[in-house]
Amino acid sequence: AQKVTQAQTEISVVEKEDVTLDCVYETRDTTYYLFWYKQPPSGELVFLIRRNSFDEQNEISGRYSWNFQKSTSSFNFTITASQVVDSAVYFCALREDNDMRFGAGTRLTVKP
Amino acid sequence: EAGVTQFPSHSVIEKGQTVTLRCDPISGHDNLYWYRRVMGKEIKFLLHFVKESKQDESGMPNNRFLAERTGGTYSTLKVQPAELEDSGVYFCASSSRQGSGYTFGSGTRLTVV
Q1: In B, which residues are within 8 Å of A45 by CB distance?
Q2: How far apart are CA B108 and CA B6, in angstroms?
Q3: Looking at CA atoms only, how far is residue B104 from chain A in angstroms?
Q4: Which of A6, A8, A35, B96 has the fewest CB atoms lying closer than 10 Å?
Q5: What's the pLDDT at A44?
Q6: Where is average pLDDT lowest: A57-66, B14-23, B99-108?
Q7: Nearest-CA neighbor of B83 among B30, B11, B18?
Q8: pLDDT value, residue B68
Q9: How far apart, in whole angstroms, are the C-alpha atoms of residue B73 and residue B76?
Q10: Chain A: residue whose CA lies nearest to B107
Q11: What is the band of B103 on the pLDDT scale with cuts at 50, 70, 90?
Q12: Is the per-residue pLDDT at B21 higher than 90?
């Protein structure tokens, strides 16, 4: 069975602070995909990143970076120099075959 | 390319009524998925269509929920009769093939009163 845990329900930071959103997953499969999605106040789910289980390289995209560690089954997401527009609910997800499981989400509030 | 479109964006209905949600996937995407997020909890899988066939409906909560995808294009999700616990946000996603990324719609916020 799969399980995705986002232990942080809500995080509040002040603009320009760095913030890390944690994601821990459980799976028995060796082939799987990990995702992060952003849900801004407008409601849609915005795709941020997909990593497969064979690629543990960390990735940086602008102010966003992801740390994938199979040894600890974690796929953490860091926003550097946060901005008010980063305020949203962020979901981590795990997919094996066609079964995608989401975490409960972390609500990030960035205050000016 | 148009994204995944969901109608309506919001729906408020009374307990016992019927509601039908619609999802138009990206043109050419054979795979269509329904998910929902209830009461601020995790987003849960409901079912998966490949073209017009139900590939996996293990997440459907009970027989008050009926999903269809006639012709393998748009899909509908009917809730009949709606209960209070059905309130939540229903998301639809599509993908061109298994293993590829999903594109989600904006969701339908359903409120049952």
Answers
A1: 91, 93, 104, 107
A2: 7
A3: 6
A4: B96
A5: 79
A6: B99-108
A7: B18
A8: 97
A9: 10
A10: A44
A11: confident
A12: yes
Selected residue of B7, B37, B42 to mutate for chain A interface (largest A Cβ count, 10 A): B42
What is the maximum alpha-carbon separation in chain A? 42
Q: Which two tokens stand for residue B92?
A: 């639809």
Phi, psi of B14 (to 5 degrees): -90, 150
Both tokens assigned to A101? 């499981």
Neighbouring C-beta atoms of residue A66, cutoff 10 Å: 20
In this predicted structure, the answer to whether residue B38 has a pLDDT above a threshold of 90 is no
Q: A45 and chain B: CB distance < 8 Å anywhere?
A: yes
Q: Token pair of B108, please?
A: 């339908």
8 Å CB contact of A104 and B44: no
Closest by Cα among A9, A4, A38 to A23: A4
A with B: how many residue pairs have Cβ under 8 Å apart? 52
What percent of chain A lies above the pLDDT cut of 90? 64
